[in-house]
Amino acid sequence: MMSMPAARTVGAAQDPPAAAAQDPSAGAAQDPPAAAAQEPPAEKPARPSFTEFLASIHEEALVRGIRPEVVDAALATVEEPLPVVIERDRSQAETVLPLERYLSRRLTTRLVASAREGFVKQRSLLEKIGAHYGVAPEIIVAIWGLESNFGRFTGVRPTIAALATLAWDERRSALFRGELFAALEILNRGDVELSDMRGSWAGAMGQAQFMPSSYLKFAEDFDGDGRRDIWSSSADVFASIANYLKGHGWTTGQDWGREVRVSEEAAGKISATIAHREGPCKAIRDMTVALPAKEWRQLGVRLANGAPLPADGPDAAMVSGASRHFLVYQNYDALLDYNCSHAYAVSVGLLADRSVPPRRVAADPQPRKASTVE
Questions:
Q1: Is 262 within a domain?
Q2: CA-to-CA distance for 18 and 2, rounded, in angstroms?
Q3: What is the DSSP letter of 320?
Q4: Do 262 and 346 have their domain in common?
Q5: Whether the Cβ atoms of residue 203 and residue 178 lie closer than 8 Å to each other
Q6: Beta strand spans in 104-213 (E)
Q7: Is the dihedral of CA 370, 110, 320, 290 positive or negative?
Q8: 54-63, 80-89, 198-207, 363-372: lowest mean pLDDT where?
Q9: CB of 322 within 8 A of CB of 97?
């Protein structure tokens, strides 16, 4: 997801209080109470068994108003935690692979060709939805392609079992417990049959790969058949992706960013002088603050082809791997909201740039700057 100086850890560089650190007798005149001195450290509560955990989910689901028959049927399909789900949670490619390696593996010639084919085949629908939501059609295609290989693969894991496993696992239990109840609510509303509720190891569903909570907020019934069908309706899939981006601040008419060239000298200057953003996601903390284009130009940043960087461009932050660098605009944040990984968000942007058929680029008075794909 980029490489810049590591964020400082609060308190890591602080020295201990001077009296305690420098005076061996500090505290000797007043010993702590005996009871406090002998009190063992508080033990972490034991994790409940999987059976006990499922019983608690059943009870809370009923309190939340989910029909008993829905809860019974859904949890009856879950017997044991799925080891493969926990294993995948520890080894996500977007966070394990370096940026350059991820891009070279993911953005293949075949993927780019499929993106162009999908764009041409669905052009009319994509442009209609793009205009309705104010989101570039090529961005919709790129997300569709990266999430489900253009609808060819949406995942085979039973969603309830996958989410139950991750909710029971201690690493992110609170997050996935909420997603599990959201999935039960989707079943409660009758949006999808239990047998059809399958997706990724993390519980992401359909061609848009929405987590259940995102489905409840952003899934759209664009074809008007009364169902928000992100599994088999192209109209609903594209509209749901667009609605998600719009709901996360996508600005109509603005690009995502562009690849740039940064010399070793310029990279050193940027690393030493430009601050990083703050945020809950590591990818956000690994990118710089946004600067005016003229400042990036003064720092020695150039276009990918070596030409001078235009000084009148939008404010941009820098995302860097070991050897590749990108100036990203405000819309890039919406891509990070879809998946907070620079490997993912940059892949979406690059694939979008290359998914537009050449004749459309040629007809555009201000063509998009296609970036190099390895």
A1: yes
A2: 38
A3: E
A4: yes
A5: no
A6: 157-158, 198-199
A7: positive
A8: 363-372
A9: no
The residue range of the domain holding 75 is 48-80+157-203
Identify the sign of the CA torsion 361, 362, 367, 371. positive
Beta strand extents in the chain (DSSP E only) = 157-158, 198-199, 257-261, 302-303, 317-320, 325-328
The tens digit of pLDDT for each residue in 222-258 reads 999 999 999 999 999 999 999 999 999 999 999 999 9
Q: pLDDT digit string (tens) for 307-331?
A: 999 999 999 999 999 999 999 999 9
Separation of alpha carbons 295 and 352, rounded Å: 27
Contact (CB, 8 A) for 207 and 148: yes
Query: Tens of pLDDT along 168-206?
Result: 998 899 999 999 999 999 999 999 999 999 999 999 999
Residue 373 lies in a domain: no
- Write the single-letter amino acid at 360: R
Residue 14 has pLDDT above 60, yes or no: no
Structural domains of the chain, count: 2
Residue 95 and residue 99: Cα distance in Å, rounded? 9
